[in-house]
Amino acid sequence: GRAFEKTHPGAAVDFDWDRTVKAVLRVKAGDAQVAVTDQPDPGLKSVPIAWDGIALIVNFANPVNEVTTAQVRDVFTGKMTRWSDLDGGDQAIEVLPRAAEDNMQFGLETSLGIAGRFHATGTPVRTDEKALRAVSGRDRAISYLSLASALKAQEDGIPIRILTIDKVEAGQPTVRSGQYPLRRRLFFLTARSPDPITEAFIAFV
């Protein structure tokens, strides 16, 4: 936004980045020009802008390092319930879901093809930070969050591990190429016929 303002004198980009804001509804009402979301809307124009990797995280003390996509499906649909089924300890798997308004669960379910079949056994966590805090304090928990947040947490020394899936490590190159299976598409949503400055901003991005 700031870079766009510098190259387009007179333009101003304001951000309303609040979890309580219904961005799509604000665009439909004409109160905002662009919404950032992971779900297209049939009444708005959708412009794909990025892939967001979804990291599966466990406590660093958990011996499980690697899983398959099939095993992940079984864990998140309740078919697999103990870490010993994944060569871990003999403990029940505590699946910590994300809050519905966070949109992360939609991306996970879509990537795994398990829409409507997600099975949680723990209390929902509402933000990436809370997911990290919960998993770092529970050696039998598993949760999921934006890959960027998970990689930053590892750099900061938070005791979590990002699971390798199908022998593919989660990282920017593997998310971009599609080798890493868990990712969600991010979109700009605008009015069907956006104004010229909005069109210029989208083209710039």
Could you give a short description of this structure?
The chain is of the alpha/beta class.
Question: What would your notes on this structure say?
Answer:
This protein is α/β, with parallel strands linked by helices. Helix content is 30%, strand content 20%. The chain has eight helices and eight strands, in the order ααβββαβααβαββαβα. The protein is elongated, with a radius of gyration of 19 Å. The N and C termini lie close together (9 Å).
Summarize this structure as a short list of keywords or feature phrases.
205 residues, alpha/beta, 20% strand, 8 strands, six-stranded mixed β-sheet, 30% helix, two-stranded parallel ribbon, 8 helices
Q: What is the molecular shape?
A: elongated
Count of helical regions = 8
**Uncertain residue segments:** none
Q: Structural class of the secondary structure composition? A: alpha/beta
Please give the largest β-sheet: 6 strands, mixed
Query: What fraction of the residues are assigned to beta strands by DSSP?
Result: 15-25%
Instruction: Output mean pLDDT.
Output: 94
What string, H for helix and E for strand, traces the elements in order? HHEEEHEHHEHEEHEH
Distance between the termini: 9 Å
> Helicity level, as a percent range?
25-40%
CA radius of gyration: 19 Å
Number of strand elements = 8
